[in-house]
Design brief:
mainly beta; Porin; DUF3078; signal; DUF3078 domain-containing protein
Length: 300
Amino acid sequence: MKKTLSLAAAFLFCIAAFAQDNSDEEEEKEGWNSEGTFQFLFNQSAFNAEWQGGGTSNIAGNAGINYDFNYKRDRHSWDNKLILEFGLTKTDDSEFSRKTNDRIEFNSVYGYKITKDSSWSYSFFFNALTQFAKGYRFSEDEEGNEIRTERTHFLSPGFFQAGPGILYREDDDFTVNIAPATGRLIVVDDMFTTREGYVDGDYFGVDAGESSHFEFGASVNAIYNFTIAENITMDNVLLLYSNYREDPQNVDINYSTNINMKVNDWLSTNLIFQAIYDDNAVTGFQIREVFGLGLNYKFK
């Protein structure tokens, strides 16, 4: 676990050096500063009955809001990021629509600079993560009909993390918070843990008949936004967590990136990628990728 966190920290500090070389020299404004974007991505494919190349007609849409509201005065800083995303797809050969995206995430970090001109601050952070709608497992019954079984819904699971630490803040576009004493609460609906035959820990680490599970560990949270080239930007969010009390070597990873290729003030091409590793949910990486032409609106 220590090796993993050390490698992660080294990687982030390399990025920090790059960010420092390419950051804007203009001094940040004090007080509240806010900025956000709304995006809507649309994908559609259609095939007629005579099409011989194979394929299934489908339609998909993804909407998202990414909003930052930050405060800075003297040695105090308070950085907040709200991410709201939801997407659906429907194919002609499936009875049900399926989610392509579902995310509610809030990150908040308060910092107090160690010295007036330092990039390092004493910090306290809070993170919350859940989803909007029900999630399902899909399968077929004995007659070959598609069926679905509810697996998740709003606040099942819900992840809440908080703890003191140390914050490196280059500017609003690059922050890294290291919290070696992090409390983590996982909440679920006990309808999932009271089913017949349920085994302790099967549902996001929660024991049979319980609706929550508390962990204590270390976390690293990083946000890095930068410009790749003219009209091409990349926003990154990385969350790492290690549970001291159980399998600390199995570091939970949640990494997401949004590459925005601007066409004009209203249209952009977007690539969204997310990778999650959480052995309490599934053994292996969960991967999500969305690419499409999007409506893009920037607000303050």
